[in-house]
Give the backbone structure.
Amino acid sequence: MKTIITTVLSGLMLLAGWAQAAPAFKPFQAYTRPAMSLNGEWKVIVDPYENGFYNYRYEPFDQMEEPPRSAYFMDAKAKHGGDLIEYNFDEAQTLMVPGDWNTQKEKLYYYEGSIWYRQMFNAPKMEEGQRSFIYFGAANYRADVYLNGEKLGQHIGGFTPFHFEVTGKLKPQDNSLVVKVDNEREKDGVPTLNTDWWNYGGLTRSVRLIVTPKVFVRDYKVELESHETGEISAYALVDGAGAGQEVRLTLPQLGIDETAKTDAEGVARFQTKTVGTQFWSPQSPRMYQLTLRTGNDRLDDEVGLRTIETRGKQVLLNGKPIFLRGISLHEEYAANGGGRVTSAEQARHQLKWASDLGVNFVRLAHYPHNEHIVRLADQLGLMLWSEIPVYWTINWESEATYQNAQAQLEEMINRDKNRASVIIWSLANETPVSEARNQFLSRLASHARELDDSRLLTAAMEKHYSEEDPELAIVEDPLAELMDIVSFNQYIGWYDGRHEKADRVRWRIPYDKPVFISEFGAGAKQGMQGDANTLWTEAYQAELYRKTLAMLEKIDGFVGTSPWILADFRSPRRPLPGIQDDFNRKGLMTETGTRKAAFQVLKNYYREKAQEPRELEKPPETQ
Ligand code: GCB
């Protein structure tokens, strides 16, 4: 209960904080709500000079009391021959939403900058008192949103959802929704200028219009407190009501039917206990239907119930030690020539590829992926690692950068906090140790724990070698003290010597914590034959996998790994002609799904690991 109260309180404090800041991105459990889709073809104007945003004195139109019709968000058209308007959405080209722009039009392949999107729509039929919201799954990286010429707000961060209330702002017909999406990289951004993935721009996830009753369940969290006692705690945040609003929580398959009243902040809390719960696990991903009702509102969802914790060097799922047979994944589905994943179907395809390896765990790198994949993982029994793009050389000194990272963390946790599949929140990837970085990440860590202390916290750290002994690898980082799992990436045999080095390296990891190897790998061009000592061959990559896995087995506290990476993925850092051609080739398969030799090496290893006693134990079903 203490957990819940802290979570709710900090959530409310956040709400208050958000209310002061320009945009207010409160939590919104939107996935299962009925909605009108605004997906499909949108009219677009490519605007590298932000001509539709600034006047010729470089003053932003949307800061003006009466923006001129030349501002693109005014969606104006010349009315007669003497009317000078230099843009026209009606006659403009189109892009599909959801989707990145880079892979939809050849001219936009390398484009980084602003594109204006416009969609026209009629308002759905609404009853008196109902409220409406426009909900964006994600827009990379900066989105300025306008409805019928009025600014709704701005969102920063390319991989998390945001929404605006539009109650009272919709016309029955011909609403003009205009979004300026800008993916220009920024030194102080999150991520910063430098990444090893493609900077796909656009309205990359679905856009939906959601109608709710005046009073509705905006957010909720349900959590199995203990696999021993079967205690479950939950809260619901009701929007539009003050204290005393009745909320009913039911999980019919568990015989749970509880009612609670909201407090002054609109929060209703539940504490209950059941027997006979089948806990969620990879062997048996049991999901339970859940309904929250208040007034005229009803929110339906499905949840898995499980606990995740560490004890010494072990990770325990529902109290039993577990080995994480993982793989890393980018949110890219290039099999049909595309870039970003655009549908549940594609996400399912990715998880099918991963499951063929025999994994029980997927690292969603290096930013929050779409909600489809997280929900599919719930159904399929795949455990997940979810992270924010605090990657490499973030500006640790900047408060704005910190706030940006924190907002992305909040949005990630808010969206997925009810997904049993997500067992790990990761804060950062390969960040260089410094005082400023330590402070930044420790602040972020405490914030993550306040928001959700029911999951494990980690960050992908790095190793170094002992000065006395060049073959003694050490993982020591002040950040490790704050994490539940000591995770690190290492590239022995690729950026660090050749693969035989893995036979010799020993490890010192001085923490009584589980150790997870979040990346290792080697580039290989599928079909490239040659001996196991020649870079880029399938044989080299396969040999590196054999040697690395043997090395990892010797690490004390080794609880799993997510090698880099399931499939080749686009990266502007990878130009080598004939081999890379804009793809990072460390995939175990090509971007279209053709397997390389190393795929089978890892699959065999995972088959063996799955035979180990701890994996064979029957899932604990009841207390
Ligand atoms: C890393 C990064 C990952 C890169 C990978 C590589 O350590 O975490 O984003 O893609 O190495 O291939 O170099």
Notes: Confidence is low (pLDDT under 50) at residues 1-24, 619-623. The first strand starts at residue 35 and ends at 37.
